Structure formats: structure tokens, C-alpha cells
Amino acid sequence: MPKTASFPHDIGENLKTVKSAIATAAEQADRASAEIRLVAVSKTHPADAIRPALLAGHRLFGENRVQEADEKWPALREEFPDIQLHLIGPLQTNKVKRAVQLFDVIETVDRPKLARALAREMDATGRRLGCFIQVNTGAEPQKAGVAPEAAEEFVTLCRDELNLSVVGLMCIPPLDEEPGLHFALLSEMAQRFGLKNLSMGMSSDFETAVRFGATHVRVGTAIFGARAPVTPAGE
Ligand SMILES: *Cc1c(COP(=O)(O)O)cnc(C)c1O
Asked: Ligand 1: distance of its center to the CA of 32 in Å?
């Protein structure tokens, strides 16, 4: 596959390449590749770039901003009703109402105020979204996520007190560290808390994440191309 022709016409090809890399990594780790879901991260890419992925049969997507999702996905859902949309970016409490309408899964539950707002909204609407608890495995001050040492108490709050449907843990490792260490930590925590799903791994490290037990990998660039502010028409 020529590296120069990655946007947007061979998105279907890119999807195949990523899926087969997931399958190979799964096989090497003695895992069934069906256990691993590919969340195609379409943030910043327009509906015209997303449609080829939908036409190729892909249905699971991730967006990091509520407003951007609101602009793109309601129309796409009318064409493809079985879309599953994950929120993978930080969520402000004033956007909870819209997020619960737009998304199927929230991967970034990371603080009591947000968890309570989500629980209230889900109780009020009867829409029960799956929730991942985001863990700041690198304890980076500027990064979202609950601190590793506070994670157990937070999971208990979300699951047992607020009755959120907590399905797993999510992390974004520090850029300059070996991601495997963070994936291993997240995996160990999920086991300890009795949670089945692990959302970890991006374009640069999803194969490593699969080896460490990822059930959801979030891949953007390797499918849709770079997010640099270039004009797609000029390619
Ligand atoms: C953008 C983003 C991704 C995808 O990153 P790529 O390197 O483009 O694959 C994954 N997870 C989160 C939380 C993101 O914001």
C-alpha cells in the first residue's frame, strides 16, 4: 500500500490493514481476534471521510468532542442505524445531556461530579450507556483520568452507588513512555475490579495493547490519515 495515498479513497483498505494487524497480534498473544473491537477514531474528519468506512461495513466509531459529534453523526445514523458511537474525549458536565443522546458508550468517566451527572441523566431518560472509567495511569497532572490509587473507590462509587453500567477501564499512556507498562497496569486493575473491557492502544501502539489484553483499540490516523490541518481536496 503506497503511503502517499492514504486519504481519503483507500479508507476501506486502511481498515482492512488495521484489522489484519489486530488479528495477527491477537493470534500471537493466543487470543481470539473477535474479542477485540476496533473503535475507528474519526475526530476532525468530515462525514465524507467517514462514509467509506461505513460502506466498508464498519460501524464502531469514536469522537472526542460532543459538538463535533453532534454536527456529523445524527445524519450518518439516519443512513446507518446500527452505528455505535463512543465518546473518547473529556466530557464537561454541561454537555452531559447531549452526550447521552448522541453516544452509545462514554469512555472517559473520570470524576464524581461527572459520574453523578451521567447517572442523573440516564435515570431521567432511561438511556443506559456503557461507561469506561478513564485512569490516568501516568499520573500526568495535565491529563484527564482518575488517579490509579483512587480508581477502586471511584469504580465502586460509579458501579454500586450510582448504578452506572461500568464495562471497563480506559487509558491514554504518556507519549514518552513505554506504553506496555501502562497497558499492564490497566489490565491488572481491571482484573482486580472484576471489569471485562480494556480500551487502550492507538495507531502507534494498538498491537502492543492487544498483547496486553485490550478489548477495544482506538485507532484514528492509521485509518483516516493524518489530522494535520491540510485541505483534503489538495491531496
Ligand atoms: C485521537 C485519539 C485516538 C486516536 O489516535 P491515533 O493516534 O490517531 O490513532 C485514540 N484515543 C483518544 C482518546 C484520542 O483522542
From this structure: 24
